[in-house]
Amino acid sequence: MKILSFKLGGHVSFGPKVKKEEAVWDVLAIQNELQVLPSFSSSIVDGIALGFDFVEQIRKLVEAAEKSDRAESFKREFTVIEWLSPIPRTPKNIMCIGKNYDEHAKEMGAEAAPTELMVFTKSPTAIAADGQTLSIHADLSSKMDYEGELAIVIGKRGKNIPKNLAYDYVFGYTIANDITARDLQEKHKQFFLGKSLEGTCPLGPYLVTKDEIPNPQDLTVVTKVNDEVRQNGSTKDMMFSVESLVSILSQHVTLEPGDVILTGTPSGVGKGMNPPQFLKAGDTVKVSIQGIGTLVNHFE
Q1: How far apart are CA 220 and CA 149, in angstroms?
Q2: Domain named Fumarylacetoacetase-like C-terminal: which ranges (predicted)?
Q3: Residue 5, Cβ neighbours under 10 Å: how many?
């Protein structure tokens, strides 16, 4: 199931993409008007905590709408909605993995990828949406960079999760652009400020449930800047797999429904080019991952 969050006329909602249509089912409107279920969460994060029961609830709501004589009234065309991040707000900081691809580690100056997990975080206030125009933050940085990544969305609370059970705690996946102010990163000798400027963590367009992506270690990740391919990698080249990331992180941090983990970026970032090519006002960045879609943002 491909789930998206959106706003229309001041009304914030979410729902699955309508099959073969550029539209979304407004499941909150369906529940409100048809009263299909005894109860239904108005928060996508609260819903995710129910695991695949949440997916079944959404399916029941869509089936009820299709059987009603008002099915079209519950559809919201993509052309009229404001897209939101599929996870509008994470329970804690977004957890990010650094140098998880060997070639990216090398282009950043390392002789080899780290043998231990490299973790940093981004503030939840950095979250942005597909299609959103983002600031280049020229007053703070002249070295804004892109990083296309697969993002894991946690669906169940867990601590000390065994690697062989890690997928049980994954709800689904989305696309992230881990935008980074390289000069702030260098200046502060830390990642947080350079990674947390407003709008530097666009997510989307969809949250795709894990059943639609049976092997997250075999996905292409392509990033284009103004239609020029800059990154063209595969998640099979991760040093630490999805199940390893979930397991290792849970040894140190209690994972919660709605938590987002960025899995690292392939080679081809602006800083790694010769000469470096950082983002500028007027640029458009597209990050595509097979099975999920394309995350698009314009910069000004």
Answers
A1: 10
A2: 94-299
A3: 24
How long is the chain? 300
C-alpha–C-alpha distance, residues 252 and 190, integer Å: 20
pLDDT 10s digit of each residue in the chain, 300 long? 999 999 999 999 999 999 999 999 999 999 999 999 999 999 999 999 999 999 999 999 999 999 999 999 999 999 999 999 999 999 999 999 999 999 898 888 877 778 899 999 999 999 999 999 999 999 999 999 999 999 999 999 999 999 999 999 999 999 999 999 999 999 988 899 999 999 999 999 999 999 999 999 999 999 999 999 999 999 999 999 999 999 999 999 999 999 999 999 999 999 999 999 999 999 999 999 999 999 999 999
The span from the CA of 175 to the CA of 292, in Å, is: 7
What does the angle CA 45 – CA 126 – CA 152 come to, to the nearest 5 degrees? 45
The residue behind tokens 């797999």 is 241
Q: What is the separation, in whole angstroms, between the first and last Cα of the chain?
A: 33
Let me know: does 290 contact 235? Beta carbons within 8 Å: no
167 burial (CB, 10 Å; 0-12 / 13-18 / 19+) is middle
- What token pair was written down for 245? 């990331």
Residue type, 188: H
The secondary structure of residue 131, as a DSSP letter, is T
In this structure, what are the phi and psi dihedrals at residue 224, rounded to the nearest 5 degrees?
A: -120, 140
Cα angle 130, 186, 239 (rounded to 5 degrees) comes to 65
Write down the H helix ranges in 114-173. Answer: none
**What separation in angstroms does the CA of 20 have from each of 3, 17, 23?**
14, 9, 9
Whether the ω angle into residue 275 lies within 30 degrees of 0, i.e. cis, is yes
